[in-house]
Amino acid sequence: MNKLITAGIAATLFAASSSAFAFHCPADMKKIDEAMSKNPKLSAAQMADVKKFRAEGETLHKAGKHQESVDTLAKAMKILDIK
Ligand SMILES: [Cu+2]
């Protein structure tokens, strides 16, 4: 009985954390889009990298790979100096 409850709690926590990531990606994409709309002072190469990571992050998010998406979007945010 206790094992069942523990498994239930673990499954709930896992669902909660993965849905937190599901929300995290669009929030990061929004931050990136906002920063890009303000004409950031980046080199052409940095711009290309940001656009690449932004697109990759969206693809990963849609594929359900939220952790990878967050990691990829973080690279774009680092270039844009978003905290
Ligand atoms: Cu996601």
Explain the overall architecture:
By secondary structure, this protein is mainly alpha-helical. The chain is 84% helix and 0% strand. It contains three helices and no strands. The protein has helices at 2-37, 44-62, 66-80. It starts with a helix and ends with a helix. The model has no long low-confidence stretch (mean pLDDT 87). Copper (II) ion (CU) binds at residues 21-22, 25, 61, 66, 69.
Bound molecules: copper (II) ion
The level of helicity is: over 70%
Overall strand count: 0
Radius of gyration: 16 Å
Alpha-beta content class: mainly alpha
Shape: elongated
Using brief descriptors, characterize the structure shown.
single chain, about 80 residues, mainly alpha, 3 helices, about 85% helix, about 0% strand, elongated, binds copper (II) ion
In short:
The protein is mostly helical and 83 residues long. It is 84% helix and 0% strand. The mean pLDDT is 87.
Q: Helices, strands, pairings?
A:
Blueprint: H1 2-37, H2 44-62, H3 66-80
Helix pairs in contact: 1-2, 1-3, 2-3
The chain binds copper (II) ion (CU).
